[in-house]
Amino acid sequence: MESTLEEIRQSEDNSVEPGITDRGMTEPIPIIRPNLPLWENVEKRLKKIYSSRMLTNHSTVSELESTVARYLEVDHVVALSCCTSGLMLAMKALGITGEVIVPSFTFSATGHAIYWAGAKPVFVDCNNRDWNISIESAIQASSEETSAILAVHIFGNPAPVAALEELAKELGVPLIFDAAHAFGGSVSGRMTGGFGDVEIFSLSPTKLITGGEGGLLTTNDSSLAEQIRYLRNYGNKGDYDCFLPGLNARMPEFNAALILEGLPLVAGEIAERERLASVYREELSGIPGIAFQEIPEGNQHTWKDLTVTIDPYIFGMDRDKLHTLLHEENIMTKKYFYPPLHKQSGYSELPQRSVKLTVTEWLSNNVLTLPLYSALGESGIRKISDVVKKIHSEIK
Ligand SMILES: *Cc1c(COP(=O)(O)O)cnc(C)c1O
């Protein structure tokens, strides 16, 4: 018992630099390392839940919902099992059955949710500056059949919310944000969570704040929030005469406890990642062929991910090779997002509209996500950068 607790204490000591202390680069540097709250604080909450015997969708979940509503300055927050179920339920509740305009350059789940809701994804391009949905491409893809726009705040860099709200209004369709990456982000001082008709955050372990698993749906539409509350519980309003076939998409109390304790860490983690991202920029932007995601003025990026592009002709080596060589040096990287959705086997049957996905395809072939989290510290970022520089200098 004692040693188990001790192990837990050690594992949540966020001050330890993973794999890059005085041991040198002998241990892998993971791509992600969640900044977890103090075990003592989490333990107190877990004990209380455990002894109450109310393990799901109870008072810790409602405390989380009201705390997050204040934090994000949004009227309604509904806690869910994950972001994917939230996206599915939001689309069902909004009655979306036709075509959904969605960027192809995103994580699989964005498209999957449209499929499971019974609607049809129409993949559009992203722009080559901030890598978010291209408004021109969305306009091009819009038609009589368009029934919604589903945009993503890619890597935590908020999407062009004003232009999207205008387009959705013009088309007379709902606007949904897959905000999986964007907890703690903002646009001109307004937190993500309140844009469009509804936004859905993810709390899976690769995200900035995690509950192990979890999702948070945010909206200023009270009837939508009410419907989602029923739909996360099979669609049952209490009389077992379900108004819509819902899901079990409830958030367990234990997850809510972890998220509640994690909330106070979010702002600091973002600030630290922002500082470390600028160290990467300082170290790497001098290398020909490496480019960074642009951040539009007014955007607060969450730095869920730090993704760069490697232009193979200018850098002198392609992204895949760099990924392999970094792996050999024990530095874990990811190809976020490759392949793009329109190239995935599961979507091969989908008839494509004649929207060009040129930027998406180039990005997807050349992106590389580098480790970025507070535990790395400045020295961690400099060490990783040195390896990239060394690999580049040795290209013949
Ligand atoms: C992680 C992620 C999801 C899925 O979130 P879950 O909570 O795992 O369902 C959806 N969209 C994007 C963009 C993601 O990165």
What does this structure look like?
The chain is an alpha/beta fold. It is built from 14 helices and 13 strands. A seven-stranded mixed beta sheet has the order 1-9-8-5-4-2-3. Strands 7-6-11 form a three-stranded antiparallel beta sheet, with no helix packed on it. The protein starts with a helix and ends with a helix. The N terminus is likely disordered. The site of pyridoxal-5'-phosphate has 14 residues, from helix 4 and helix 5.
The tally of helices reads 14
- The spatial strand order of the largest sheet comes to 1-9-8-5-4-2-3
Mean pLDDT score = 93
Bound ligands, each once:
pyridoxal-5'-phosphate
Distance between the termini: 56 Å
Main sheet specs: 7 strands, mixed
Write the layout of secondary structure elements.
Blueprint: H1 2-11, H2 39-52, H3 59-72, E1 76-80, H4 83-93, E2 99-103, H5 108-116, E3 120-124, H6 135-141, E4 146-152, H7 161-171, E5 175-178, E6 186-187, E7 190-191, E8 198-202, E9 215-219, H8 222-231, H9 253-262, H10 266-284, E10 290-292, E11 299-300, E12 306-310, H11 312-315, H12 319-328, H13 358-366, E13 367-370, H14 377-393
Parallel strand pairs: 2-3, 2-4, 4-5, 5-8
Antiparallel strand pairs: 1-9, 6-7, 6-11, 8-9, 10-12, 12-13
The protein binds pyridoxal-5'-phosphate.
